[in-house]
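To the team - flavin-adenine dinucleotide complex, inputs and output below.
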Amino acid sequence: MMKRAGYPFVFVERMGIATNSHQCGTLRFGADPKTSVLDPYCRAHDVENLYIVDSAFFPSSAAMNPALTIAAQALRVAEHLRGAELMSRLELMSRTEPIEPIEPTEPPQPTWPILPPSPG
Ligand SMILES: Cc1cc2nc3c(=O)[nH]c(=O)nc-3n(C[C@H](O)[C@H](O)[C@H](O)COP(=O)(O)OP(=O)(O)OC[C@H]3O[C@@H](n4cnc5c(N)ncnc54)[C@H](O)[C@@H]3O)c2cc1C
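Output:
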């Protein structure tokens, strides 16, 4: 990945479970649902209203400190969500047809037997 990004030298040092301060990449982000859990805005490919904006989104753990990148990505996703919310509000405001009222329905009845109150 780093070589593809243009870095001529890439040094790798694998760290074991004892070095657990930079856990990243448990729910990788990416455009392809076959190889990632989250989309590029950290929304789960499979669950429409689930966003995960912690260190899980990284494709892998870099050697360097991740906290600022986690915060930057969270801000980016928040900005995206705010934009999406604004768009849906504008869409609602621009509706010309009247909104049909929702008819009240009967509340669901319990399927278990209701016992009479115990005496005393
Ligand atoms: C000793 C140490 C030193 C580090 N030093 C640096 C550094 O100098 N620079 C740097 O960039 N990074 C550093 N890191 C890494 C950095 O702290 C983490 O990568 C970063 O905090 C991860 O952010 P996060 O939001 O994914 O998770 P966290 O910051 O771990 O946040 C997860 C939050 O979820 C909460 N939580 C967990 N389970 C539940 C639950 N079931 N219900 C509700 N809440 C829950 C936890 O209490 C926690 O507040 C260090 C890590 C360690 C351990």
